[in-house]
Each structure stands twice: as C-alpha cells, then as structure tokens.
Amino acid sequence: MTRKAIYLLLATLLAVSPAFLNAYWVDVLNNVGMYALLALSLNLILGHAGLFHMGHAAFYAVGAYTTAILNTTYGIPVLWLMPVAGLMAGLFALMVARPIIHLRGDYLLIVTIGFVEIVRIALVNNVFGITGGSNGIFGIDRPFLFGFKIRKPHEFFYLIWGFMVVTVFLFHRLENSRFGRALNYLREDDVAAEGSGINTTHYKLIAFVIGAVWAGMVGTIYASKMTIIAPESFNFWESVVMFMIVILGGSGSIRGVILGAFLVIGLPELFRGMGAVSDLINNVFSGFGITLDLDFSNFSQARMMIFGAAMVIMMIFRNEGLLPPLPRKYPLKKIREEMS
Amino acid sequence: MSLLKLDKLIKDFGGLRAVDEVTFEVEAGDVFGLIGPNGAGKTTVFNLITGNYEPNGGDVIFDGTRINGLAPNKIVSLGVARTFQTIRLFKSLSALENVLSGAHCRMTSGPIAAMLKTPFQQREEKEALKLALTELDFVGLGDQAETRADGLSYGNQRLLEIARALATKPKLLILDEPAGGMNEQETDALIEIIARIKARGITVLLIEHDMSLVMQACEKLVVIEYGKKIAEGLPEEIKVNKKVIEAYLGTEDEEDETCF
Question: What is the pTM of this model?
Fold first, then answer.
C-alpha cells in the first residue's frame, strides 16, 4: 500500500512538474521519457528473456525513418504513422533476428552490435535513395492530436509521458501473463523451458518483435519532436545507453528501468549546472578573503567516468540492478477458496 | 498397442556408440524401469525419447506417432514429460511459477490477449493456477507455493520437478534418477508418489540407481550396458539374471585377472 502511495505521489509530481520548469528542463524530462520508453521495450528482450541485445537503436531508426519518409513524401500525419513505424520495425526485427535467434550470450551481443552499424551505414549511404544520406531527412511534421498541434516541450511532455502510461500499463500486463512467464523460463534455463513444453525459439522471436514495435513507435515520436533526423542519432552509443539503463535500473523491472532512465539521462544534465556551483563556492570563500579557483564546469564531461565507476560498483554490490523486479503476485487465497 | 516403442535406436557421439540398437516397449499404465551401470547410456536413451538428441538410427514411436527429430517442446505437448538428472528448476522463480511452466503448453493465450486481458485469457490463467496448485498439493508442496525454487530442500526440489512435469498433463512421465540425493524417508515418499501417479493412469519410465526403489516401484525392467540391452523382464527375474549381476559386480574371471 505504501509503495502504491509513493508511486502515485511521484507520478503526480511528474505530471505537474512542467508548470514549474522552464522549457530546457521539460525537454530534459522528455528525453528521459523517450529513453525510458526505449529501455522498457529493450527490457522485454534483455531483462525478461535475458537475450544480450545491444542493437536496439537499429529498430528505433527503422521506426523514425519510416515516419520521416512517409510523412515527408506522402504527407501522412505523423501520429497515424506510429503503428506503421512499429509494424515496420517489428517486421525488420523478425527478419534480422530469425537467423541469429539460436545464438547465446556474448555471441548474440556481437551480432546485434552488427545490426546497428549495418543500419547506420545503410542510412549514411542513402540506401534505395530515400534516406537522405548523412544529412538525413528534414521537414518532418509536428504531431496533431485532436486538431491541436504539438510543438513546445511542454506539449511533447504530455505526449511522451502519456505514451509512457499506456506502455507501463500494457507491459505490466504482459509481465504477469503466460507470455511474460515464458520469457523468464527461457532466461533461467532454456533446456528446462524446452523440456517443459515451451517453444523457446518462438518466444525469443516474439520478444524481439514486440520490443522492436515499441522502439519503432518511439522512433515516430522522436522524428516528429526533432523534425529532422540523421543517421548519427541512431549509432551504437544509443544502444549502449539503452542497455545501460536496463542493467543499471534492474533487469525485468519496469520501475527499475524508469529510475535507470532518470539516472543515466537526467543526472548528466544536473552535472552540467556544476559550473554555477563552483562559482558560488569561489564567491563565498572570496568573501572571507580566501581565494579559491574551483571550476566544475567541465564536470559533465567526467560523467562517463562516473557512470563507469557506478556500473562497476553496482555489479559488485547490487548485481540485480537498483530496483530489481518483485516476485509476481497471484490470487492464491481466492483460487484456494474456489477449489475447495 | 504399446505407448512407447524404441526400435533399434542408435546414437553415436563421434566414434563412440552410446546407444546401440536398443529396442523395448513400454505398455500403457506400467511403471517401467531402465537400469544399468554408470555410463551405460541410460540418460542418452532418455534424451533420445525427449528430443534433446536426435538418433543416428532407429525409431522412437510414441502413441502411434514417430517422434524422433521433433523439437523437445513438441514432444512435451504430445504427452511426454520429463525430469532432469541434475535438477533444472527456474531457480529465481517461485515453486508455483515453476509448475505453471508445465501448464504452459496446455494454454493458448498470447501476448495480445494478455495486453487486452480478454475474458478467455483470464479464465485460462485461473485454470492454470488451479492446476498448478493441484499438482503442488499432489507432491506435498502445496504450502510452499510462494517459496523460491532455490529456497526448497534438495528432496523438495526433486518433487517440484515432478509437479512441473505433471502439470503438462502427460501420458508418459520420464523420471531421470528421481531419488538421487534423497534420504530414506524421502525415497519412501517418492515411491508412494510414483504409485499415485500410476493410479492416475500415467505411465512412468524411470532411470534409477537405487535398487530398492527400482525393485519396489517398477513392474518391468530393462537393463542396458555399454549402450546395449542385456536383459529385460520382471524385477524378480532381473535380480537373478546372470548377465545383470556380471554387469553390476563384474565376473569372477575379471576379478582373477585384476588380482595379478
């Protein structure tokens, strides 16, 4: 109960936060939201099914480019393209994942890294003459929702976090179903899962497809938010960030992944303001006649070092992530009553 | 017609013939034992039946269908369930969820039904929970439903594997050394459970080293050594079979040779 109250409080705080924040900080929250969505979709593959997939940015790119191309050439409204982008990303995932689905652990990891690079290089080389090469595609429309044009960060905030609510709701149901359990079985022991009658190949593929569909839909939001997309937005590093969010936050845990996104995407923005902190300290000390020459303004560049250290420490002391998944709840009492 | 028929089954590992033209039939309703010294190829035979290995020759016929070459999950859904020689549970999941994995192949709801929480999906989920609890009760773990699998005692983990296998609603249950690592009381409880499984009309095929268990639980035995069938018959017959005694204890000649 208290846990529910805390979640409700945090959600309310987040929902009203745009009223108190400037455009810059709202945009930071939007980025956090987008990465949280991407990481949640990766979480199905990496967290629940335990497949080391580091190529998620490829699916994200397919979604974003599908949206950009169809919108700029045919003028189809962006939000209508969301399911199309998801479908394309899902089909793409099915196609590329099928031949490699039997690979395990590190082998799969290496091949999926290949995904991202192949997609990025294909985009740079203006494949089929429709991706605009390394300049990318510009002039993508803003989304319209009920005749209202979404343009400012404050408006995107509600689109992104609204989609988040839907996603969390649906993914929570997925987790607590036959499908969600099947993914966990094959993560724990795929020989035993197969021996218990679970078609592991099928479920691995479905996990890839659903994850890709969601990443593709986030790609739509990204394309319409930026109005210009380029191959460099979908490089290997993006995949690493998503991977890091899932592992750091807690594999297989929705709340963990969202926390992970806040830490990995939000914290560096806080560090960016550190220059002001060092100025403040210098000023205070100079008031006492002490000359300090502190400069924290480059602190944000050290963030990778801090993340690296944090990951190492975490893997030693908390290797399930910051907020590992809770055991599923079943209405056992009720079922028992019905049985007797 | 027999429920399971192995017909001149062959399995090679490189130059080694681990299973050499093994032939036997298991009648429906029997508790059938497969015994033999260490390394005789018993587990290999099991893995050939369950689809974990593909035979190099011969056939496995289950319930009138040729099943060699099918994927393990397909064979499970046809009605062959198994336990593992080394316990293979889903360690970080609860006992209940472990048993639910067995119920999986008798359910049909996919991810979309789960997202929409269709009435059918919810009904199916409830039925699966009932089935899982029933099987947990059956092996005596009903009160441990929410315990993590790796939090159970060794003997109980073995029983949980049996419950998981039973949840697949099998016609044939294959137990690979179910008494391994069990103490005497646990073994007695296991014998009683095997009898109750038989009473449910499920055929049991059992690999075991524990001779007292085999003699008490099984109605018919096959003995293999070096991948070959050396004897077949009732427990009383096997007990006095000269070849079997030789296989387990060695011949007097051999003993003489080793003396020198």
Answer: 0.89
